[in-house]
Structures are given as C-alpha cells and as structure tokens.
Amino acid sequence: MRFQKVYIVLVAFCLALPVSLLSQQTEIFRSDLITSWGGKVTDKNVWQSYPRPHLRRQQWQNLNGLWEYAVTPAAQQEHPIQWRGRILVPFCLESKLGGVQEALLKDQALWYRRAFTVAAAERTLLNFEAVDYRCRVFVNGKEVGAHRGGNTPFTLNITDAVRVGENELLVRVEDEQEGFQLHGKQTLKPRGIRYTQVSGIWQTVWLEQVNASYVRQLSIRTDAAAGAIKVTAAVEGAARTIAVRVKDGDRQVADSTGKAGQELALTVPDAKLWSPRSPHLYALEVELLNGDGQVVDNVTSYAGIRTVGKVMDARGHLRFTLNGEALFHWGPLDQGWWPDGLLTPPSEEAMVFEIDWLKSAGFNMIRKHIKVEPRLYYYHCDRLGMMVWQDHVSGGKGASWTRLKPDPQDAEWPDEHHEQFMLELARMIDSLESHPAIVCWVPFNEAWGQHRTVEVGNWLARRDPTRLINIASGGNFWPVGDIVDAHQYPHPDFPFDQDTGGRFNGFVKVVGEFGGHGYPVQGHLWDAGRKNWGYGGLPKNMAEYKERVATSIRMLNELRAQGIAGGVYTQTTDVEGEINGLMTYDRKSIKIPAEQMSELSRGLFVK
Q1: What CATH architecture does domain 323-605 belong to?
Q2: CATH match of 16-45+65-203 with 2.60.120.260
Q3: Which CATH superfamily is domain 214-223+225-303 in?
Q4: Distance, CA of 409 to CA of 432 (rounded, Å)
Q5: pTM of the predicted structure, to 2 decimals
Q6: pLDDT tens by residue, 28-45
C-alpha cells in the first residue's frame, strides 16, 4: 500500500513538471577528460582576446562569462519566467566547460539572459562569432534581429533598443541537428565518426560602439609577383573616403587613398612574401574620412603577400605552387574537437599550442575538417606560417558514394535548402577570405551532402579566383575546380587506373585522407568502457603503431613520385571514441614526438 501511494505521488509530480524538463532526458556522456587549459578556465578569464583580427578597434566590450539560461518547449515564444541556472559563455550547452552538459532536443528552445552596460548614446553593434543554429535576439524586450546558420559571425545593430546604463540581453536558440541543417559531425547519439552535438552560443559575444559612418568589413587580396596588397572596404554611412597605410614594423612602406567599396592597390617595394618558412605579415592602418577630411573611423588590420597556384613539373605532373615555387602540401586532418569545450577550444593558448606543435612536427598545412574555427585561429595560422585547406560544414541529404569512379552521383536538394547551403558557404568565405594561410576551399567531403557539384564549383571559382578548389575531398569527382582527391585507409593509395579517358587531366592529384592508425593511451580515453577504434585495427604495442605511421608516410612519398601533390594524415588528435590521433583527445599525451614526425616526413620535401 505504501508503495502504491509513493507511485501515485511520483506520477502526480511528473505530470506537474514543465514539458521541457520531461523531454530533457537525453544524457550527454560526461567524460572525466579535461585539457590543461580547460582546467584553468574561469568566468573571469574566459576568451578575453579581441575576436576579429582583420578589423580591430581599440574600444570594445567582451560579453563572455556567466549568463542565465533556461530550456523551454520550442512552441513557447515568450521568455522564461524562471531561469534554470547559469552557463559559461561561449561554451555550448552540452560541454563540460559550459557547466550544464545537457542535450537540446529539436522540440526545445534554449534561452540566455545577461545584463550589459553602455556608457554613451552611440551606434551600438552586438557581435556574435557563432551561434548554433537558429537564434532570435532581444534587447530590453525588443527583438533586434535573428540569424540562421551555426558556424559564422554575424552583427546586429541594436542602437534603437539600447539605452545608456544597464540593459537586458536575451537570446533564444533552436537547433534541430537533422534534415538539411548544416551540422557537420554533430549528432544526438555519438558513435564512430559522429560526435556530441553542440547547441547555442559557442564563440565569443561582444559589443562595440561606432560613429554614424564606420568600416563594416575589409577584404584583402595580394599579388606576390607585383608585391601588391589590394584592400576593399565596405562602409556604412555617408563617409566614402578610405586612407590605407602599410607598415613593416615601425616603418611605413606604402600608402594610398581611394573610395570606399572600390579596390585600393598598394605596391610594397621589395616585398617580403608570406610562406610557411617565412610567414611575414604587414600591418595595415585604415582610416575612414568624411567630406571635410575628418577621420570618423580608424581600424587596424594586416596582410601576408602571397599567390597560390599550380604548375606542371618535368614529368607532366601538376604540383601546387606558392609564390611561383612548387610545394608539396603535407598536413593533418584536423577536426577541432575538445573534450571539455567540444567545438569551442578551451582557450586561445590551446589553439596556438596545437598549430605550433604541428609546425614543429613537419607539417606545412592543416585540412580544417568540416568545421569553421574562431577567426583568431586563422590569425595564428597566418602568424606561424601554416597553410589551411578549409572545409565547408556539411549537412543534409548525401549522394551515393562512387569515390573517383566514372558517372559520379549528386544528391537531390530542394531549392530552399541549397540556397541556405550557398548562403552559409558565402558567409564563410566573407569572414575568412583575407587570411593568407587559407589556400584551398573544400565545399564537399566525400558524398556528405554533395549536390549540384558543378554549379557550386563554378560559383566558388568566380567568388574567389585567388585560391584552389578541392570540389569534393574523397568524394564523387566532377570536372570542376583544381583538385582530384582520393581517400584511402589505412595506407595511402590513388586510383590512377580509374582515370578513364583522361578525366583527371588538368587536375592536381592528392590523397586527402589516409592513415588513421589508432593507439589507446590509458588514462587519456574519452570513455574507457566503449569500443575505442582506429583504421586497420589497433596495434599490439607502441612500436607497431609507430611503424604503421612510418609505413604510411613512406607509401605517400612513393605516390608523390607518381604525381601525388599533397597528403592529409588522419589526424591531429583522438576525438571521443576515435583514437587515431597523433596526440590524445586531452592533448596531454603525444603519441609520436614532434621531432620524430618531422624526420619521418622530411623526404616529402626532397625534390
């Protein structure tokens, strides 16, 4: 009888709970892994650096830190009356560092709230570096904008809603994680090569105040042969004159004045070119002038002068070039996942450690795999001299995977979803195109969401003729772009025999994924109780693991002699149950020391 009463009470209690609490039953796996940087994160030191390296202003306000949060049914449009607790922004709802570790379901909405203070009545811009996936934003109860797309920055003009003194900021987020939404490798049920989902704010939130006229965006292109830096400034407001100065250290080396919206070319005498061996960067000072010649906005930026291309060698093989010189592209597949922050690195220092280690390990390139990093990541690649192949984030219906065989396949995508795919691709390029480190765009990975391939490739070639296009890394090859790319695990190979009728003529040949040799390091596993795996099965010991890696690199070098111009080793780190990284997921154990990796790959650069 007592049991029956308790049961009735429990049922009544459950029926009284909000729908959001009842439906929030999906558990996020809570691993003990944490990086050394994650262990130092607090609400006072979290992501403090200015987030937009190519357009910097002196005055800005960082809104990272502890925010209130709540989860409601998606049908509920009104903001919550009660808030569940606090979340550490910019870490997502599912992450350890966010402090919540709950999954947002497709029938739910995630709400954020915080206060901020504005000291002056000026034009106020609210910047989000990334929110996954759809959001609406409110200031002092007024909706100030909305955004769809989880991987790139956006800015809202909140001037009409903000007031001098304290203000309230609300953000409402929905994230379906399925259908045609671009979500990359995120999933509600992690397994294999799919990882824990990421919902909500996952990069820096910040404020800046500007005059009525201001520089909204800078686009920077360069020409190594001419020693030229070409700057185009997009401007808001009436002021239309732009003045640009180029500096090498403290020394001014070029200057010019022109109209906003038009390309301004500055020639640097005896220009120092950017390359992985010598990643020289010039500082840019940009002023916006009104009709009276008064400065109404000034920003700083930078440029690395380099030209990307391709050339036929003496044996008839196409090779990559940088500044007119042939260069083998050698890099890791880099997914950018972290055990404590998921898609959000625990700190800027953590990102720098990884790029710097890869450089010391002999790599000159990174394939950034199905993820767009914070813009500061690409600044550090620019600064340290690391080329980047940048993937677009995948999603939606995939094609049948024919690899590089004839008669490639495309998936069917409705117009509205294709348009969103293209919008997010364009936004990625808009936000990253000024980084000299990025040398190649990769719109599709294998057959994941691959559709209208030729149309996408032709659009991309028109949009950015300064970079190479790898239309579908390891996917269904269509004759568009610059590169034909094969994936092969565990050891590299290329299907030269499938080049029927010379289909690959005029395309640079690469092995865009190989390796993936796994090795479990006890004490550094995401989940020691699950099946941790690597390609080709796990080796008996560390000696066998290292020999497998060495064998793959030797085989890549043999392929280089047959015409392969680049190789991508899988991968930088372990990711959840996928333990095929050169270092563990928490970055605390290096499986092969950097100097050994560098020595193994030295032959790839011997002419």
Answers
A1: Alpha-Beta Barrel (3.20)
A2: yes
A3: Immunoglobulins (2.60.40.10)
A4: 30
A5: 0.94
A6: 899 999 999 999 999 999
